[in-house]
Batch of 3 targets.
Target 1
Amino acid sequence: MKRMTDVLVEELGRNPEFVFVVIDEVATDNWGRKGVSLTELSQQAEGEKP
């Protein structure tokens, strides 16, 4: 598995000394797909399991 830094170095030609990766957790209510929040999609998927 590639690290985020490796991808930026390879794809953008960045110097790894100056690459900073910030991971910020975002609540699933603030992510969505086709107008449906990730929370709702997860609940729907749980309901479809046998």
Target 2
Amino acid sequence: MRVKRMTVAEGKRVGIDRFPNFHKTGSIRGMKKLYYGAECLLVRCGSYIYNVTSDPQIYNQATI
């Protein structure tokens, strides 16, 4: 799975700040391996990457 992107305005509209996140300089591979699992859905919004696995509609709305 890829990390999709979303603008900050779109992120505010869908309430992306309620999901767990980490900074964009963090290791995606490491976070998937240690915390989120290999099949998690990640969306980058601004300077952070959010785990939106519990709400896949947000992942589907984001662009590649």
Target 3
Amino acid sequence: MKMLQVYRSEPNKDVQTLVAILNRDREADEFKLYGENPNYDELVQKIFAADKTVCWW
């Protein structure tokens, strides 16, 4: 199963711990919306390629 983690802001220690638990034994990818000029076309492709997507505030 492929997981995609989408971050709206830089993840804190608690979020990083939860992400590590969710990604355990899975193929994982991430996308950072908080960076300068995020590539939304790339985000859409990653969402469709993933089995599950988790968005973090």
